[in-house]
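User: Thanks for the earlier help. One more: DUF2855 domain-containing protein. Can you show the sequence and predicted structure together?

Assistant: Of course, both are below.
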Amino acid sequence: MAEFQVLRNHFSKHRLITSPATEDMPSPGDGEIVVKIDRFSFTANNITYAAAGDQLGYWQFFPPSEDPDDEWGIIPVWGFAEVVASNVEEVPVGDRLFGYFPTASYLAITPAGITDQRLLDGAPHRAKLPIAYNSYTRVGAEPGYDRASDDERMLLWPLYITSYCLWDQLQVNDWYGASQVVLLSASSKTSIGLAYALQADDSAPPVLALTSEHNLELVRDLGLYDQSLSYPALTEIDATKPTVVVDMSGSGEILGQLHQHLGENMVHCINVGLTHWNETQPGAGVNRDRSEFFFAPSHIQKRMKDWGPDEFTRKTSAFIRNTAVQSRQWLTLRKVSGLHDLAKVYPEVCEGRVPADEGLIFEL
C-alpha cells in the first residue's frame, strides 16, 4: 500500500509514495481511530476537486506525507474503510465507514458528534471545511445495509446528491422563468442524474443535452433528453426560448458561444463542474451577471437546516437509490486493483479518455 499524490499546480503530474510512513498502520492518538481504506471510486468529479483545490479548500482535507516544499496534494475520493485501531470507546474496531477519504492506505480520524448512524472528523485542520465532507456514515447501523451495493454507492452517491441539489435549486427558483434547460457535458454522471430528476418532474421544462461528438450516441440512447446535440451544433438550440443553462464542463469557450447564441434569452447559468478543466479560461460572450457558481455542500447544509438531517437523508437516499437502479441500464463498473494501478489509469481520467458509461472502482 502507499499514498497517491499529485502536483498541486500541475495536477496531471503524480507520484506514489511508498515508505513506512504511508504503508505501516499508524497508531491512534488520544481520541482517535485509524481506518484502513479498502475501496473507492474515481471519476471526473475527482479531477474537479483537483482543479478547484486551492479555491475551494480540497487540498486541506488530507495533508500529504513527505512534502517539505508544500507542493503536493492528495485528491479526496468517496469510498469505504474499516476501523482497524481505536482509542474511542463508541467506535469499535471492525466498524465500517462510508465517506471522504484520501488515495492512501490509512486515515486517522478524530471522531466527534458520534451517533449510531454517523460521526464527524473533528480534526483541527478540518474544522472550517464543509460538514458534508467531514461526515462519515456508520453503515453497519443502516437497516438492510448490503455490502454488495458499495460500488454503486461510492460511485454515484457523491454525483447524484449534487444532481438532486441542482434539481431542487432549479425547482425552488421556478426554473428561473425558463422554458427550456440546457445541460453542458450532458454525458457526465452528474448531468445524467439531474436529467433523471427533471424527467420525473412533471413541472420541469424540456431538457436539452450538449455533449462531445464521441458521446452523442450514448446521450441520445439514454432517452432522458428532449434534444441532444454535439457542441459544434449548439446553434441548433432554439434561441427564442428563455433558457437556463447548467454547466458541468467549465469550458469558457463553449459557454461563451452558447451565451452569445442565446443572447437575452440566456436567463440564468449555473456553473457546477470542470469536466473540461483545461479549457477554463474566461470565454468571450459569457454573461457573468446572470451566472452563479453552485457549491453542493452549501446547498446540502442549507437543506439540512430547512428539513432536518433525517428528512434530508430520507429524500436524497430515495432519489439516489431509485436513480442508481435506473443507471444499471447503461453503467459498467470497471474494477482496478491498488494505488499502483491508479497511477496507470490516472492519465485516462485527466484526459477524459474514460468512457462516459464506465465507472472506475479501486480495490485496495
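User: Great, one quick takeaway?

Assistant: Residues 272 and 294 are 5 Å apart (CA to CA).
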